[in-house]
UniProtKB/TrEMBL annotation:
Name the record gives this protein: ATP-binding cassette domain-containing protein
Pfam families assigned to the protein according to its UniProt record, in alphabetical order: ABC_tran
Domain annotation ABC transporter: ranges: 1-221
Keywords: ATP-binding, Nucleotide-binding, Transport
InterPro entries: AAA+_ATPase, ABC_transporter-like_ATP-bd, ABC_Transporter_VariousFunc, P-loop_NTPase
SMART domains: AAA
Region ranges (Disordered): 200-219
UniProt-recorded Gene Ontology molecular function terms: ATP binding
Length: 285
């Protein structure tokens, strides 16, 4: 799945929420999205899920998608079980399989007793369990989670963490926003920050490399780890300098800043993809 030059604004003369977004989502990848309130995180997720269409640019290769919104429309005129059964049908399940899956997911989240309860009568926490359950039904190739953990109890949050890891290991793409900075810590293949209408790699937490030379060009230091036996793809953008890093399979790549986005895309879309540990701005000779 790829976004090429994607922008989004609301109304012909409205301000741009996002501009010139280029992003690749390979199979089996986990992407965390961060940013301040109102920065455009939810807009990016809605574009990925196909809820919104780009105002400019293209999105190609979107697989079957499930989306858990930040606010669940709990006033729908149906019971929790009927709603999940209907969503299971949309995900491609037969009627009997969808009905079984609806009850199974409610029970796994500790909400089986509410199968026959109208959505409008559910508590906020139980409504959120229903919202998450509909996203996990079937086998979507892309799972988009917009603060899906908010309102869940501890056991349900752990179950969702486990399911995310399972889906990624099975080849699905998962993109998520969450207010907890420790959510799935260390598991994400990349962390992006939405800021000023742009979608950028988040700076890593590596030690400060020191002051930038006043007139020198900036560079980017990327610490990446490959799967067992993996080698760096040939012809990486910007011809980065490569050095061993801590860890048996980790390397440090230093490249001029204009090539950093292309280098990150090359690593994340490699077969198999590389895990990005950190991205740091550094002086570059």
């Amino acid at each position: 799945m790829r976004l090429t030059g994607v922008g989004r604004r609301y109304g012909l003369g409205g301000p741009w929420i996002l501009r010139n977004v280029d992003l690749a989502l390979p199979e089996g990848s986990l992407l965390r999205v961060e940013g301040a309130n109102g920065s455009g995180k939810s807009t990016l997720l809605r574009l990925l899920a196909g809820i919104d269409a780009p105002s400019t640019g293209r999105i190609t290769g979107r697989p079957r998608t499930a989306y858990v919104p930040e606010r669940f429309p709990a006033a729908l005129p149906m019971t929790a079980g009927a709603y999940l059964t209907r969503l299971g049908r949309i995900h491609g399940l037969g009627r009997a399989a969808a009905s079984r899956a609806a009850l199974d997911w409610l029970e796994r989240f500790g909400a089986g007793a509410y199968s026959g309860t109208p959505l409008s009568e559910l508590s906020k926490g139980t409504s959120q369990k229903v919202a998450v359950a509909q996203g996990l039904m079937g086998t979507p190739g892309l799972l988009v989670l917009d603060e899906a953990w908010t309102g869940l109890d501890r056991a349900s949050r752990g179950l969702l963490d486990e399911e995310v890891r399972k889906r990624v290991a099975g080849g699905a793409r998962v993109v998520f926003v969450d207010h907890d900075p420790g959510r799935l810590a260390g598991a994400a293949d990349a962390v992006l920050r939405v800021e000023g209408g742009a979608v950028l790699p988040r700076r890593g937490s590596a030690p400060d490399p020191g002051p930038r030379t006043p007139d020198g060009p900036s560079g980017c230091r990327i610490v990446a780890e490959g799967p067992p036996g993996a080698v760096l793809p040939p012809g990486l953008p910007g011809a980065p300098a490569v050095e061993p890093a801590r860890g048996d399979r980790a390397v440090t790549l230093t490249v001029a800043a204009p090539h950093s986005d292309a280098l990150l895309r090359a690593l994340l879309t490699a077969r198999p993809p590389w895990h990005i540990r950190s991205v740091t701005e550094v002086p570059h000779p």
